[in-house]
User: Fold these one by one.
Assistant:
Number 1:
Amino acid sequence: MKILLLEDNIQLAESIGEYLEGMGCDIDYAYTAASCVSFVEQNQYDVLVLDIAMPGMTGLEACDQIRQHLQVATPLIFLTARDTLDDKLAGYKAGGDDYLIKPFAPEELLCRLQALSLRGPRRDLGIVKIGPLEVNYSNHSVIRDGKTIALHATQFAILKLLTQNYPHTVSRERVERTIWGDNPPDSDALRTHMYRLRNLLDKPFDLPLILTIHGKGYRLETYE
């Protein structure tokens, strides 16, 4: 079970992580809410574990970004000392799936994590509709004007990035970094992938959804 743990108390984070790793879990550590969001954007997890009270961006705000901006449906549990009913309701409203109050027994945390992992991603998240386009981040399905379009993994990764940033322009460099990390190929591979994506997503229809913004990058256009 791969877990992301957001906790600014390093000693507590290490204590939780040591127990979970001893039980066979793979842990990534985030010590700020902003880095937590970045981890989620770049990696896949079975469960997200977030503290709420953080310096700067709070765990609630990180959860909101994960759910609303990134549209990530990974199960999420809050670990916090905030124990009022209003606190719990705020956690669930932000997009949390469970809420565990500190202090807690590590055995109970593991039990809840296992239950969330077995439950799997939320079904009310992960589908984005932009104009005639519907993209399901969970099962990688793409529909335009009622027609299902099959994309390869790289093509889907590009489209997902464009939908996540709609209506803004995404730079060529960011697209390359999303696909290849810090080691983009020497050849003009991105142009080839964009050409193939457009052939599938735009060519069969009257108007193109993917626009090239000269000198800046790419963005989606819905003509609405």
Number 2:
Amino acid sequence: MTNSTPRQRARLETEAQITRIGNRMLDDDGLEGVSLRAIARELGIVSSAIYRYVKNRDELLTILIRDAFTAIADEVDEALTRDESVLTVGVTMLAWSRRHPNRWALIYGTPIPDYQAPRNETVVPGTRIMVTLTNLLEKSSAVQTSSELPPSHALDPLREGLRELGLEPDDQVIVRSVTVWAALVGLINALRFGQFGPGVELVEDELMRGVVSSLGH
């Protein structure tokens, strides 16, 4: 922002600090450890002053959710510049979830009680990887395999959602995208939330490779 005033720059820096502190609290203590009052203390301001930057806890959650979606999507995009494959998407998401398990839980875990993410702020960052994956599958020969598709009307909600994101894939690609996405996120959730029991943390990457291979990629 080259034409910004000192006050505007100071506000942007404070907002960035709030995000950094909030992420650290989330990493250290989970969602229960995220507190606007505690953030205010770290910033050295009175607790009431924090509301000049963040209206309430819901807005703070939205900021952290948007930041997490952006961070993981940025890593996927960067990794795909080196190797454009479904496996790259999967292992990059998996690695990010290992480094930031609480941030992963925030965006892909159990919905937060009494919180509704504003679509206008979270849909675009939250669907970046899905858009990337759909485009990748549309170019992949793997989507040409014949399989029984659900009735066309069953895909209407997905088709409309993808259309809102600027995508017009055929039904085969839609089903393939849903299948791959559910497999990647489902595996990572099972790993992060301990559904496979002890010891599996030693072979996470191998499991991801096996799942992606079983999907034909």
